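Progress note, project year one: complex with zinc ion.
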Amino acid sequence: MDSKKYVTLKERFLKYVKFNTRSDEASETIPSTPSQMEFAKMLKKELEELGLSNIFINKACFVNATLPSNIDKKVATIGFIAHMDTADFNAEGINPQIVENYDGKDIVLNKEQNIVLKVDEFPNLKNYISETLITTDGTTLLGADDKSGIVEIIEAVNYLKEHPEIKHGDIKIAFGPDEEIGRGADYFDVKEFAADYAYTMDGGPVGELEYESFNAAQAKFKIKGVSVHPGTAKGKMINASLIASEIIEMFPKDEVPEKTEGYEGFYFLDEMKSNCEEGEVVYIIRDHDKAKFLAKKEFVKELVEKINKKYGREVVKLELKDEYYNMGEIIKDHMYVVDIAKQAMENLGIKPIIKPIRGGTDGSKISFMGLPTPNIFAGGENFHGKYEFVALESMEKATDVIVEIIKLNAER
Ligand SMILES: [Zn+2]
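Model obtained:
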């Protein structure tokens, strides 16, 4: 690979990851943390320096820009989207380490604290021999999720700007906040973005291409007990903690994250707290299949009815809310969007790895807003923790894929 093709990629990535853009679930502001707005402003300035058009930060903190078409004929407008925030893990003082010409051995991330990226724990490391890896120093995450996506998109449009001989239609780009807390895309403005189809650059290793996600809901059980002095409780006490345990017992034992994979859905006991007086049990429900998803929600409703019937009063109140849906349901009617990405990878000698996401992406929500948005690899590994790393070569490949998709779209 011509590593000098995207000359500013490495430097740009190292600059971006040093911004602490950790999002905060507990915050109610948009964006959830002010540092994301700071980062957005910096991005806006850089996009201006690159000479893109129609650059603005909207009220939901999405940084938007356009690379205008350079051909006469009308071709579809493609969008590329990545998220600015990082997961709920220390992001203060990110100090990226560069491992040149990786030798395939364990990587000491932090000598003093004896934090080591071990090949036997992370066998994928073997896929990166002789490449340039960027790792953490063992005390933070890296934030390749999803700064690598942002860098790849910017490098791709920069490359196209410098190579006007490559013909393309209008290219829209957007960088949004709060993906990791499942919120940013709620305020994405599909109309304003005005693309015909889009991709999130937010997947893992090279080749990943995803267009199916989970359907997702959260079930919160609010339990009201009756607390009485235990010495005189006979016939009076209703122990909320015991009801919490009853609820948990009623769930199927095998439909849990640790026993499922592929297209198998699950119920995940996410949180519980209780005392005799009151309790709260929170589950998340996940399934790719719509019918099975609905059946799982039905199961939860019936469970609550059974418990309340047993106690002859409303001891449990259910708060059931949908979080996002399987984008495959929308994208299946626009499969050319997946096909172009697949073709782009094949043209570049990259083997597409198409598999259902066991989670959601911004695309899960955006697709349901009417903009089909599959997810493409951004290149990183071991997201959301101190073992996160990314190969420079993977980011270059992702950038190549963006450019190739844009070329293919112009030829359609
Ligand atoms: Zn991500």
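Residues 83, 145-146, 179, 202 surround zinc ion (CB under 6 Å).
Residues 382 and 388 are 4 Å apart (CA to CA).
No further modelling is planned for this target in the current period.
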